[in-house]
Amino acid sequence: MPWTIEDFTEQFEKRTWPFAIETDFWLERIELLDWVSLENKSLLLERKPKIY
Questions:
Q1: What is the pLDDT of residues 8-28, one digit of tens each?
Q2: For residues 36 and 9, what is the distance between their CA atoms, to the nearest angstrom?
């Protein structure tokens, strides 16, 4: 079952998703996720976590 925006967001909020470590790395990973639609990529990029 494909991941949803909510799944990604939940993982980020829990800070369990490894992409949360570095913003640039996150952006690169999104580009490589062929199975994520362009619309969803935009939503993911808008909702990416702030790095502390």
A1: 777 666 655 555 445 555 566
A2: 14
Torsion of CA 24, 29, 37, 7, to 10 degrees: -100
Ramachandran bin of 19, using left for φ above 0, alpha for ψ from -120 to 50, beta for the remaining angles: alpha
Token pair for 7:
């799944």
Query: Which ranges constitute the DSSP H helices of the chain?
Result: 5-14, 23-32, 38-46
Q: What angle do CA 36, 38, 44 make, to 5 degrees?
A: 70
The model scores a pTM over 0.70? no
Q: What are phi and psi of 38, to 5 degrees?
A: -60, -40
